[in-house]
Specification:
single chain, alpha/beta, five-stranded mixed β-sheet, 18 helices, binds NADPH dihydro-nicotinamide-adenine-dinucleotide phosphate, binds (2Z)-2-iminopentanedioic acid, nucleotide-binding, Glutamate dehydrogenase, glutamate dehydrogenase (NADP+) activity
């Protein structure tokens, strides 16, 4: 283990003993605890208050059965989760993921990361995450609706606009949020901002759909500018082709870059002329088809089976926007060998720890997820504000606020790294800057 501080080491060892099977959660916790060494050394009162022990345990974990009937009349059963991690600085806030890989380890890692990310936005939001091992791929709209209704029939009793406000994540977009909102409203007889990512006609915020991808590019742009570089003329590779990837493509292109490769879990496409985000939107959001069908629109493009090979495509900037641990050491080596100078994470924890270290050691600018993909949840926070005010801001107004938030996140992250003697290490900077506000709130609120 690379944690040297005795207090933090003890906390981490406790986690490894209690949750030996929760690999993703341990991976996320180890990275944060490592970053906090200089902070904890400067604040002995944290140990006395058992602060870190409390921070690594969720306040509440809810697990439940989700029964539903498929189109053939057969009863299906999935597992549902909501991990309410930390409410020191605001109501629990974080997405719902529907993917067959979902388990308690994955939801805990996401919920833990969410606490620090939400803190970085500067908005009053605690951290949480949830989801199910349900796979929306290949299901009819009616099946997705029945699943969402069943999921909300249990979840509703744990959430609320001032308690816990879920949103989307992998496999949960506008369609799923709509069905869940409808069921919540029906059960509670209450029209409230209990979910974000809602449709515009029923309380959604303009620019929320675009926010994670746009925010990622605003953050990356700031990081590039601070190092004498820019998106202008750069070749960009984006993994994934979902919500985050599509709007990262649009914004990177607007900022002067060319997006030459994108992927899904089956494979990736390369189009040296630049991938039009509108084509990808049509394939993924309207047709719900595989990325391979891009060739029907652009026959001159190339399709390669298998998603991992995408890191071998030579580029200046790489934006991993699919899922956790999708960019391993071999991928990082290929990126460096081909001259890539910046990696910013759109997905949560997409880069493995050894790959992150390799990129940083080789001078690649590295934007960590908690900072670089915080634009989605930040705009969810703006959706909550609009719901509370009972009004709606224009697209331009929300986008301008998002831009300001991302610039501030970059500045605060870079400043925290420098303050603790790790200039340029934005991984440490994001963990420290996110931690400070939560720590201060928890110290004020007593042992709870
Ligand atoms: P979507 O469901 O819209 O898209 C997910 C994309 O990633 C798809 O292209 C999917 O391919 C691919 N993918 C998912 N799982 C895997 C896997 N195991 N292996 C390879 N590819 C995979 O999700 P989002 O775009 O919303 O989320 C992408 C990432 O961004 C996630 O890590 C999420 O946590 C993170 N994020 C999302 C935010 C948001 O606002 N939506 C905010 C901040 C972070 P396929 O269709 O083949 O499964
Ligand atoms: O990982 C994330 O930050 C999200 N999926 C968005 C969460 C939210 O509440 O908007």
């Amino acid at each position: 283990m690379s944690i040297k501080n005795a207090y933090l080491q003890g906390v981490y060892e406790g986690l490894t003993q209690r949750y030996p099977e929760q690999k993703e959660f341990l991976q996320a916790a180890e990275e944060v605890l490592e970053s906090l060494e200089p902070v904890v050394a400067a604040h002995p009162e944290y140990e006395a208050a058992g602060l870190i022990e409390r921070m690594v345990e969720p306040e509440r974990v809810v697990m439940f059965r989700v029964p539903w009937v498929d189109d053939a009349g057969k009863v299906q059963v999935n597992r549902g989760y909501r991990v309410e991690f930390n409410s020191a600085i605001g109501p629990y806030k974080g997405g719902l993921r529907f993917h067959p890989s979902v388990n308690l380890s994955i939801i805990k890692f996401l919920g833990f990361e969410q606490c620090f990310k939400n803190s970085l936005t500067g908005l009053p939001m605690g951290g949480g995450k949830g989801g199910s091992d349900f796979d929306p791929h290949g299901k009819s709209d009616a099946e997705v609706m029945r699943f969402c209704q069943s999921f909300m029939t249990e979840l509703y009793r744990h959430i609320g606009p001032n308690t816990d406000v879920p949103a989307g994540d992998i496999g949960v977009g506008g369609r799923e949020i709509g069905y869940m909102f409808g069921q919540y409203k029906r059960i509670c007889n209450e029209f409230t901002g209990v979910l974000t990512g809602k449709g515009i006609p029923y309380g959604g915020s303009l620019a929320r759909t675009e926010a994670t991808g746009y925010g990622l590019c605003y953050f990356t742009d700031e990081m590039l500018k601070a190092n004498g570089k820019s998106f202008q003329g750069a070749k960009v590779v984006i993994s994934g082709s979902g919500n985050v990837a599509i709007y990262a493509n649009q914004k990177a292109t607007q900022l002067g870059a060319k997006v030459i490769a994108m992927s899904d879990s089956n494979g990736y496409i390369v189009d040296e002329n630049g991938i039009d985000y509108k084509v990808m939107k049509e394939i993924k959001e309207v047709k719900r088809a595989r990325i391979k069908t891009y060739l029907d629109y652009v026959p001159s493009a190339k399709y390669v089976e298998g998603s991992q090979g995408i890191w071998n495509v030579a580029c200046d900037i790489a934006l991993p926007c699919a899922t956790q641990n999708e960019l391993p050491l071999e991928g990082a080596k290929a990126l460096v060998a081909n001259g890539c100078y910046a990696v910013a994470e759109g997905a949560n924890m997409p880069t493995t720890p050894d790959a992150t270290a390799y990129l940083q050691e080789n001078g690649v600018l590295f934007g960590p997820a908690k900072a670089s993909n915080a634009g989605g949840v930040a705009t969810s926070g703006l959706e909550m504000s609009q719901n509370s005010l009972r009004l709606a801001w224009t697209f331009e107004e929300v986008d301008a606020r998002l831009h300001d938030i991302m610039v501030n996140i970059y500045k605060n992250t870079a400043a925290a790294a420098e303050e603790y003697g790790m200039k340029g290490n934005l991984v440490a900077g994001a963990n420290i800057a996110g931690f400070q506000k939560i720590a201060s709130a928890m110290m004020s609120q007593g042992v709870v």
